[in-house]
Design goal:
mainly alpha; two-stranded antiparallel sheet; 13 helices; about 260 residues
Length: about 260
């Protein structure tokens, strides 16, 4: 549910060199160069999150220290620290940081989304749902399609299929390259016995997503419904060969559709 950031080399700081400033006290120095503090803070936070996303705790902590050196009260940096604590297996500390960040700035959309993921992983679905809905309400948020997918997934956990379907469909409108929304829609339509719609969404998923035990098992059941035995058997063999120890393969063996 996170976006990876690539490593930025030191020379990228050159992009933030400024020639003059209208407001005093808003600059700092980096390797002898004058740097806008706001831009430097933002860059350190992004770099920290990028390293955290890749599992590099030391580099992530280093850049967060630099961010806090610029602004010890930065809500965005505090939200990033929550992500570091998750990586370090400190859920209590992580939640404290999430709450502190949102107390200082309730409009931090990405922090709402990340807090929602944290709560979802703890199976605190109602709280998670509230955070995802807050993030999804930000029309300018670049990650809104994925957040709507998160809304849909937690809505399913809460038994709200109607909201889940609406969220997944909205996600595909905003971004036609979000595979998770298509596989979820395919599953929902299959459960509703709307098999043509299920097949359409599964085909879209297979075009842009990675083949999985779930997608293969759903494909097997759909081909069985449509009476395409040859393709059903081919997908069953793929499931057996690629995911022999998956729950889906076990279900197929226990309820062989042939």
């Amino acid at each position: 549910m996170k976006n990876s950031l690539f490593f930025l080399k030191a020379q990228y700081f050159a992009a933030f060199v400024i020639l003059c400033l209208m407001v005093s006290g808003c600059v700092t120095k980096q390797n002898g160069r004058v740097i806008d503090k706001t831009q430097a803070l933002d860059l350190h936070i992004k770099m920290a999150l990028g390293y955290i996303d890749k599992g590099n705790r030391e580099a992530g902590r280093l850049h967060l220290k630099k961010a806090f050196d610029i602004d010890k009260n930065s809500p965005a940096a505090i939200g990033a620290m929550a992500q570091l604590y998750i990586l370090e297996g400190e859920p209590v500390l992580a939640e404290e940081q999430f709450k502190l960040a949102l107390k200082r700035d309730k409009n931090l959309t990405e922090v709402h989304n990340n807090y929602g993921i944290f709560l979802f992983n703890q199976k605190r679905y109602e709280e998670s749902y509230a955070e995802f809905e807050k993030a999804a309400a930000d029309l300018a948020y670049l990650g809104r399609a994925q957040t709507l997918t998160n809304v849909g997934r937690v809505a399913l956990k809460l038994g709200n299929v109607t909201r889940a379907q609406a969220a997944f469909e909205h996600a595909t409108i905003l971004d036609k390259t979000v595979p998770d929304a298509y596989i979820e829609l395919a599953d929902i339509y299959f459960q509703k016995e709307a098999y043509a719609d299920a097949k359409k969404n599964l085909d879209l998923y297979n075009t842009i997503g990675q083949e999985s035990a779930r997608s293969l098992f759903l494909g097997i059941r759909l081909e069985n419904v449509f009476g395409n035995k040859e393709k059903e058997e081919r997908l069953a063999n793929q499931l057996k060969n690629r995911f022999p120890y998956s729950n889906e393969h076990l279900q197929y063996k226990q309820h062989n559709l042939n």
